[in-house]
């Protein structure tokens, strides 16, 4: 039987473009389909347009950053670790730099350079790109045979890779088609939900502080007494609650009922309670007759002071020299752990990453091939894998894409060799 291609890749995002080029480089004829006219639409908006392309870390740090199913990624990580991803882009003519937290960006701060590099790599290896929306998978007796497309086309392929992404930012093309395609092949798809997203909080004062950004604060997320997340960084108040880098990372630890979780902001992480108390005493010593409401300007952003005053339970009009030692201690405790109540996560469409997806136990971690349908491969966010911020999610896409691409190319070579053997026989 003549095939339209050896490998048909559905989805030209980070995972699909990497897989397509790697397979083509190893001799496979590759068709790359995306419903968008151009490749890498989501990549273009990553890292606020700068693209945090990977994290320059070792395996342990990487696996620690992966929130769901990290062990599934051992082989993919080893096949294409961050240092190889970096080498790949540098070889494609994109100089990189490493910033705080080992986050890697193009020196140009332009995500488009990463997309162009992938396009050049795919072009140079003969990948044929087509704008096409894949509607269904074609299979026969447990073996994939091709796909059909929205315009009524049918394409035969020896192998098919699904790299259609998750459900986040659907305007980029990631609308969950891959979940339906995987299910049609008999795969279990775990419900998609938001990971790395802003949080809706109960406290009305968050909305009143909309636009206020806090730098160098520590956000702590607890479930019961257990601290799940505690990091220093930046957060901001919005009309619905809180957002920003710290909040996104904390959100990936929230699973199920939000009322089980408690959030605290340490507004003065650089001062332990004793030093904070001394600082309050020193400040207030210089403003003896001032009312409590007007006494926190040196310590806090102006807009936040009335909120802290009202939560402290100390009468706003009290003169600072009349504030008791106990009241000062409880104020210090409040500044070290301002409590917030999480109502819910923002919807998955607004999340940076989708949690849930194709169940990893039904996919071979050594090849990314389906354990249910021969010749069907998976890569990227479509799988039930997600990580915290820092370049780890793109690393997941590149590692799994790479492994799927080289595995499919290897399988194709084997099929061709078998065909030759049978022919000779
Ligand atoms: C705003 C934002 C910023 C981010 N910043 C970063 C960052 O800096 N660093 C980081 O590591 N991660 C970041 N991420 C996460 C990262 O972008 C994703 O995890 C990653 O792009 C997933 O790659 P993917 O190839 O699996 O899917 P995608 O990049 O989503 O690609 C999937 C492709 O499949 C196509 N497709 C879908 N269905 C079909 C169909 N039926 N037929 C044909 N084509 C189809 C889509 O059009 C899309 O192009 C960010 C995400 C967002 C939303």
From TrEMBL:
Pfam families: HI0933_like (PF03486), HI0933_like_1st (PF22780). Residues 194-353 form the RsdA/BaiN/AoA(So)-like insert domain. InterPro entries: BaiN-like, BaiN-like_dom_sf, FAD/NAD-bd_sf, RsdA/BaiN/AoA(So)-like_dom, RsdA/BaiN/AoA(So)_Rossmann. Residues 6-405 form the RsdA/BaiN/AoA(So)-like Rossmann fold-like domain. Its cofactor is FAD. It comes from the Bacteria. The keyword Transcription regulation does not apply. Transmembrane segments: none annotated. The keyword Oxidoreductase does not apply. Keywords: FAD, Flavoprotein. NCBIfam families: aminoacetone oxidase family FAD-binding enzyme. This is NAD(P)/FAD-dependent oxidoreductase. It comes from Yanshouia hominis.
């Amino acid at each position: 039987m003549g095939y339209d291609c050896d490998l048909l890749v559905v989805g030209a995002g980070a995972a699909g473009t990497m897989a397509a080029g790697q397979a083509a480089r190893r001799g496979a004829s590759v068709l790359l389909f995306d419903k968008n006219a151009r490749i890498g639409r989501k990549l273009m908006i990553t890292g606020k347009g700068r693209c945090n392309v990977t994290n320059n870390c070792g395996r342990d740090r990487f696996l620690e950053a992966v929130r769901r199913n990290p062990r599934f990624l051992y082989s993919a990580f080893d096949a294409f670790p961050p240092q190889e991803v970096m080498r790949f882009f540098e070889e494609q003519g994109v100089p990189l730099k490493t910033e705080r937290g080992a986050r890697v960006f193009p020196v140009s701060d332009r995500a488009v350079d990463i997309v162009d590099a992938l396009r050049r790599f795919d072009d140079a290896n003969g990948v044929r790109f087509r704008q096409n929306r894949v509607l269904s998978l074609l299979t026969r007796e447990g073996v994939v045979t091709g796909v059909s497309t929205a315009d009524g086309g049918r394409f035969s392929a020896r192998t098919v890779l699904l790299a259609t992404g998750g459900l986040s930012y659907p305007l980029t093309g990631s609308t969950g088609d891959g979940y339906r395609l995987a299910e049609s092949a008999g795969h279990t798809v775990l419900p998609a939900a938001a990971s790395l997203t802003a949080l809706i909080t109960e406290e009305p004062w968050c909305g009143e502080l909309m636009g206020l950004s806090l730098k160098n604060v520590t956000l702590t997320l607890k479930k019961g007494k257990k601290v799940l997340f505690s990091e220093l960084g930046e957060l901001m108040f919005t009309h619905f609650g809180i957002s920003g880098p710290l909040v996104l990372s904390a959100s990936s630890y929230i699973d199920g009922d939000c009322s089980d979780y408690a959030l605290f902001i340490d507004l003065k992480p650089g001062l332990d309670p004793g030093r904070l108390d001394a600082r309050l005493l020193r400040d207030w010593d210089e403003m003896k007759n001032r009312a409590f409401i007007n006494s926190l300007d040196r310590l806090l952003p102006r807009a936040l002071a009335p909120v802290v005053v009202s939560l402290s339970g100390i009468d706003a009009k009290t003169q600072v020299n009349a504030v008791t030692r106990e009241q000062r201690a409880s104020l210090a405790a409040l500044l070290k752990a301002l409590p917030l109540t999480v109502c819910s996560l923002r919807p998955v469409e607004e999340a940076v990453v989708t949690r849930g997806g194709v169940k990893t136990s039904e996919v071979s971690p050594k090849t990314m091939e389906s354990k249910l349908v021969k010749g069907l491969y998976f890569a990227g966010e479509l799988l039930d894998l997600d990580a915290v911020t820092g370049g780890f999610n793109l690393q997941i896409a590149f590692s799994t894409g790479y492994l799927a691409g080289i595995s499919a190319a290897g399988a194709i070579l084997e099929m061709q060799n078998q065909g030759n053997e049978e022919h000779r026989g």
